Amino acid sequence: MKLTAKTLDIADRGVLLNRNDARNIGVVEGDRLRVMNHANGRAVPAHIDMTDVMIEPGTIGLYGPIHLALAVTDGAEVEVWEAPKPASLEFIKKKMNKGKLLREETRAIVNDIVSDNLSLLELSAYVTANYINGMDMDEVEHLTLAMVETGSRLSFSNRPIVDKHSIGGVPGNKISLIVVPVIAASGLKIPKTSSRAITGAAGTADLMEVLAPVEFSAEEVQTMTEKVGGVIVWGGATNIAPADDRIIVVEYPFKIDARGQMLASVMAKKFAVGANLVVIDIPVGLTTKIADVAEGRKLAREFIDLGERLKMRVECAITYGDAPVGHTIGPALEVKEALAVLEGATEPQSLILKSLSLAGIVFEMAGKAPQGEGYAMAQELLSSGKALAKFKQIIEVQGGDPSVTAASIPLGEFTHVVNAPEAGYVVNLNNPSLVSLARLAGAPQDHGAGIQLHAKPGERVDKHQPIFTIYADRAWRLKLAVEEGRRLMPVLVEGMVLDRIPNEHHIG
Amino acid sequence: MKLTAKTLDIADRGVLLNRNDARNIGVVEGDRLRVMNHANGRAVPAHIDMTDVMIEPGTIGLYGPIHLALAVTDGAEVEVWEAPKPASLEFIKKKMNKGKLLREETRAIVNDIVSDNLSLLELSAYVTANYINGMDMDEVEHLTLAMVETGSRLSFSNRPIVDKHSIGGVPGNKISLIVVPVIAASGLKIPKTSSRAITGAAGTADLMEVLAPVEFSAEEVQTMTEKVGGVIVWGGATNIAPADDRIIVVEYPFKIDARGQMLASVMAKKFAVGANLVVIDIPVGLTTKIADVAEGRKLAREFIDLGERLKMRVECAITYGDAPVGHTIGPALEVKEALAVLEGATEPQSLILKSLSLAGIVFEMAGKAPQGEGYAMAQELLSSGKALAKFKQIIEVQGGDPSVTAASIPLGEFTHVVNAPEAGYVVNLNNPSLVSLARLAGAPQDHGAGIQLHAKPGERVDKHQPIFTIYADRAWRLKLAVEEGRRLMPVLVEGMVLDRIPNEHHIG
């Protein structure tokens, strides 16, 4: 059937058909069309959406990616046929039926994910089936390699290439801003790609963006790393392992993170940047992704196994995840704290210890320091100012201002201090509540928004002593966070009355 | 945040936001907004789609259902907030984690399905989890009742009310056109809702539509049934158990039909029309949904169990499903064949036997005939012409022309006869291939399109004797079907050469 083309800016590999035309062609929602531009011979498959009104019979709405692929002008004629379903649907069904996917089957699925040949509905079935039925280590390896093959890759002439990853779940985990420059200051190369926060208050990419641009192609990441030894960029812009970005969208509503997919996603990104020495931070705690140390050790073993299959050396650090790292949550606040440490601040200890420990593990893995002396080496690179100098080179190569100092970083102009209602010991910081508050205040979009903690668990506070400050860039955002803060109680002081229920029966 | 409203005719309970506004509000794809029209105080939750271009910052695109619910005029101001995720997402996750859903949890999910509060992605996770982890009979009962409660219902003052269902998978299964009038001719009431074909060549609703309108409200179905004793309508228009229509969309790409969902979907529709006597046709065969008789018996037991829980009497007939019922496939061809039987034709035997057997089971269940004599009663209603007279009343009450005869039904004007390439016995009819051909020829959209079989398995044909005819309403459709017919070989004659591979190396 021949139809007139009309472009619709929708970021899906689909077309919008009038319901009458669909009936005529004999297709229903869930089918595919093959759409051809006779002017240049290009033809692509497309999902079908239907409408009674938005598109006239005889016209076809081409969504952005289809329009691009066909290079068709509005008003021109395209021809359409019903197209067969992709074979990957059969492979997804095999996984739904508890089958083990072969390398080629996983590759077909990942290819179709990356080229948007699977609808969200279909991708959701794949992710759900993986979550429920799991994957064995062969399948995880195949998924990792398929994710690598369907994206951009770096290729350095000299090894080792170092990488570092935290599996997340702890607010305030700004350690990459210290670990990367310390490692690069030793002469090792670390092309660090990182994520933006989805449910968190600030991803490493959100932090770095306070200081410099973070969107670069894979090629630019390689060039910058060769020049100064390290970068901190947003992985989403590099086209490295892009399948993962699609999968994350589907996992989001259920907050699931299927083990095999998580392993594949992390390791694909490390493999694709050419890393052969990898340290993985596994925060353990009731409010993180890994509930206890035994579970953390199991995950660590899986990372190490997968690394061996991929010829990468992996070590894992099980870390404490039940309280924020350092005293700040939110982009500018976290950057200020990390930069102060690079400038010589001797606290917060939780931040300094964790960063130097991870860097030390890398130095021992790389043979830069004898076993047991990696930490000291990292400490020397920090205290000598070499790490700070290296960080300024990284900021500069990414196009930021290297003259930046911790003191010069602007925080949100609207603030609200929360004071202890009673004297006592701080007994609990609730991570999810702290993150919710920071997000309500505007993080990560508003760089100045977030939380500054004045007391951490075990510290004694007096009545009316400040326990935390909320920062916001916009007054209405601060108001939202303050209101919700009363309900969420993210910091608990021993003996504090959590709520008071008035007796509503008055003596009349 | 306040935004200007703009209506978009998209049949999804969503809104389209400029990516900048989304960032400002702090929402990502997969989140929900609460959208409020201050002019009338109405507020509804909505899914979020994002665009860089289609919608300007400050404007919000409201899809059809949201626009309807808010009753907002284009250009007016609406206010939006981030809305919490529905609790049903947690219940779906529970099922993903192999949990057993409570009655209230299933009810919440079905409510959100029917009110479009779940995205297709989320619904897909639910259906996939049900498919993989299964449901026990309590969960099936709760799902059935939730499907009933979220739709329209009939309520007759007198019982019994009869219903009949075929679980499908056999082409040419036009028996409802005979079973319904035979049952109604006995004085029993049978308000039959039926489906349109999705992957088949003609659903019962597609067949009936050749003779009369099939789209009625539940109220109209009740009135018509009270008047003439029976109807044959399209269930999709009645709003009976509408959750099922949503679930089918999600099952379509993978051609799955999770057992528990199938049971619930069938029985919800029977329960909602008030039926208390139900006969279920379970065709078994390699190309149907149920592979063998043992599996068919197991399914029958489940239908009967579920019926007992719902206080409905259910009997099941296990029928032969490896060949088409009768000799025709496609709307007009099937109607012509069924109408001829009502008019007194003595074949095809497969159609007559099956129809009268099912009606006979109902007469015995209802106490209209003694055990073992239901078939004879059905036969008498057919041969006396009472069933034909009743069918004409049904056609008339639905707005069709009761003077219709089998001879007067127009078939597709474009035909192609396929002859036996060799003499021999017909050894196989391939059901899926026959359905594909009928669909390529235009069925079910083109009423005249389909297949007329001239020989069935076991019959002897001479060389060049016609074995089947393809009918189409449009010449290009016929061409498509004929071309594909050569490849699919839907009818096999013993000794026939299936393909000839020429030797492409010529002696040069």
Describe the structure.
The structure is a homodimer of 508-residue chains. With 508 residues, chain A is an alpha/beta fold. In chain A, the strands form five sheets. Chain A has a six-stranded mixed β-barrel with strand order 1-5-2-4-3-6. Chain A has a four-stranded antiparallel sheet with strand order 12-15-17-13, with helices on both faces. A three-stranded parallel sheet of chain A has the order 7-10-11, sandwiched between helices. Chain A has four domains: 2-83, Barwin-like endoglucanases, CATH 2.40.40; 88-134, no CATH class; 162-236 and 269-406, Nucleoside phosphorylase/phosphoribosyltransferase catalytic domain (Pyrimidine Nucleoside Phosphorylase, Chain A, domain 2); 414-493, Pyrimidine nucleoside phosphorylase-like, C-terminal domain (Aldehyde Oxidoreductase, domain 3, Alpha-Beta Complex). Chain A starts with a strand and ends in a 15-residue tail after the last strand. Chain A has 18 helices and 18 strands. In chain A, helix 3 packs parallel to helix 5 (120-133), helix 6 (137-149) crosses helix 11 (259-272) and helix 7 (176-185) packs across helix 16 (386-397). Chain A is globular and about 75 Å long. Chain A has helices spanning 19-25, 64-70, 88-96, 103-114, 120-133, 137-149, 176-185, 204-208, 218-228, 243-251, 259-272, 293-309, 331-342, 349-365, 374-383, 386-397, 431-440, 475-488; strands spanning 2-8, 14-18, 32-37, 42-51, 59-63, 77-83, 162-166, 190-194, 230-234, 277-284, 313-320, 328-329, 414-419, 424-429, 450-453, 460-461, 466-472, 491-493. Chains A and B meet through strand 4, helix 3 and helix 5 of A and strand 4, helix 3 and helix 5 of B.
